[in-house]
Amino acid sequence: MSTQINRSWQMSGFGLSRLSQTQGKVPEPGPRDLLVRTRAVSLNYKDKMIVDGVLIPDLTFPFVPTSDAVGEVVAVGGAVTRFQVGQRVLGQVIADWPDGDAPPVLHKHTLGSSLPGMLSEHVIFGEDAAVLAPPSLSDIEAATLPIAALTAWFALAEATRPVAGQTVLVQGTGGVSLFALQFATAFGLRAIVTSSSDEKLERAKKLGAWQGINYRTQPAWDEVARELTNGLGVNHVLEMVGGDNARRSLNALAADGRLSIIGLLGSMELSFPILPFMRNRIVVQGLSIGHRRAFERMNQAIETLAIKPVIDTVFGFDEVPQAMQHLESGPFGKIVITTS
Ligand SMILES: NC(=O)c1ccc[n+]([C@@H]2O[C@H](COP(=O)([O-])OP(=O)(O)OC[C@H]3O[C@@H](n4cnc5c(N)ncnc54)[C@H](OP(=O)(O)O)[C@@H]3O)[C@@H](O)[C@H]2O)c1
């Protein structure tokens, strides 16, 4: 096995110009590991932040970025019992969080941050940190699930329980937000989507959005959200931006509303007044993707609810820099790179 070549994209430093294709040996699986031939890898906004040196400034090089991949098990360690050669699997990104409470120190064993990333033809998953890919999805579709879908699922279905008829507001039309829109719609929630583009809002409506608000032309989108809900406010906001945007999110919320802190598209800090939290008894929760059990439950729901991930663009393995650049453009859904 180790004589085979393994092509990867590796960072030798920060910046896209220091991301290059390399050839190494195919890794050997340890006793409880799966060797996986990847088929597709999806990008997340944080991959750009890692390549740019914003998210993990003390990263050690060389480093293979990205966290989400689907592939086929091509070899297993001698003690593996959960999987077999030939199965199609996805990696559990927070590899040491199978269920229940998160590990005391999060991200000590996370794919594409403290563990090597997925931009390789062959990767290793621990057998406890892998799930079967949903059979109804293509490789390109399945590769989008490990971070974006699981984060949206966790926010809507694990950290709380969806109540049909309630309202949820999702910000932007990137990976996490469109999964949130699709899950919310499937659960019978009324989803309000904000976007910089009317054209994207039209597309969001075709995916089930109840209402759309253009946050460029209507910067006071929180007031519009209140009007749309007869002055009551929305029950749940998925905060994707941070900074002052969170003040508007708070204002958009109904009494006993929930604010899920997920994204930092605009700022690494949050800013809001305290009194509305008390007055409206707002629940705030930070999210960090999710555990493997939730991933398995989500995959089952994806099958039952016939959810199809929204793909923005697919790139080839030789086009990784272009794919990373495309993240800048504000994708509608997910960017995927095929690896075979
Ligand atoms: N906490 C977690 O576990 C977790 C997990 C996954 C992602 N995240 C974070 O969540 C955020 C989104 O991630 P992603 O991978 O879904 O990103 P993405 O796919 O790159 O989505 C980007 C989209 O966000 C929208 N956007 C950008 N600036 C905005 C603003 N000021 N207001 C509203 N929308 C804005 C744009 O939509 P329009 O063009 O429609 O405006 C853009 O298309 C990132 O900060 C990421 O790091 C956190």
Detailed description of the structure:
With 340 residues, the chain is α/β, with parallel strands linked by helices. It folds into two domains: 5-145 and 290-299 and 308-338, Quinone Oxidoreductase, Chain A, domain 1 (Alpha-Beta Complex); 160-286, 3-Layer(aba) Sandwich (Rossmann fold), CATH 3.40.50.720. Helix content is 26%, strand content 26%. The strands form three sheets. Strands 3, 4, 5, 6, 7, 14 and 15 form a seven-stranded mixed β-sheet that branches. It has a six-stranded parallel β-sheet with strand order 10-9-8-11-12-13, sandwiched between helices. Strands 1-2 form a two-stranded antiparallel ribbon. Helix 5 links the parallel strand 9 and strand 10. Helix 3 crosses helix 4 and helix 6 runs parallel beside helix 7 (245-252). The model has no long low-confidence stretch (mean pLDDT 96). It binds NADP nicotinamide-adenine-dinucleotide phosphate.
